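The following block was generated as part of the benchmark described in Methods. Ligand: S-adenosylmethionine.
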Amino acid sequence: MTSPLPAGLYLVATPIGNLGDLSPRAAETLRGATRIFAEDKRVSAKLLAYAGAEAPMSTYHDHSSAAERAAIVARLGDEAIALISDAGTPLISDPGYKLVRAARAAGHAVHTVPGPCAAIAALTLAGLPTDRFLFLGFLPPKAKARGDAIAEVAGVRATLVCYESGPRLAGTLAALAALLGSRDGAIVREISKLHEECVTGTLAELAERYAAAAPKGEIVIVVGPPLAIAAVSEADLDSALDEALARLSPSRAAAEVAERLNVPKKRAYARALERSAK
Ligand code: SAM
């Protein structure tokens, strides 16, 4: 039998595909909770049945109001409330941070029960550097905003991780290839499910591969960090400059390419002048 939990808010990570990834502690917390808040009750019903959790379920999602949050917080003094999302770790591209803040501001205990997270699982599969990474969540769907968001992080010396849907994958990969240049990437799909796969290649290769047909299932894009200064060959620099010079003046092309490839501006500008004089 599960012992009752002390009152407070419990953030419980749930599987991202394989129910077997529900941790014993997560299951015990769900069984011990007096109420469970989920994004979508229908989605979570199967998981709660699997965990043997019988507490009443209510919804908490992106559109939950401040008043709904206050009502949850008001219960925390004498109830053990679990927050779960449709899959994975609550709060990671999912609702919850405002609730955590409100619970803590009201002096209630907040506990996390860590577990599956698609971003972290994708990083483990991608075979790209993991010492520094930047999680971008979902990039904006519209092309201009998406391009701006990618350009903003082009110079960051870290592996990039973002969530994406099948229908938008090709467009996002084309934008990543155009704005980040020659970097390695991985498309990690259906983690922990029957058709789990990790496809690796340069961003241009991946963009080409997925241009023809949108893949099914859930997807994480992982992009390796910019090439180290010494690793940018003359050929890479020339091809990036030629592409930029078709759109921009030599100084602006040099600035863009220097940022993108992480090469000194002086080197890029000198080469841009040579290329544009041809
Ligand atoms: N909170 C979740 C987590 O911890 O990973 C993420 C929630 S977010 C709303 C859903 C996105 O996560 C999907 O669109 C997909 O990009 C990614 N995702 C979730 N499950 C996945 C899986 N099994 N394989 C690959 N990506 C997954």
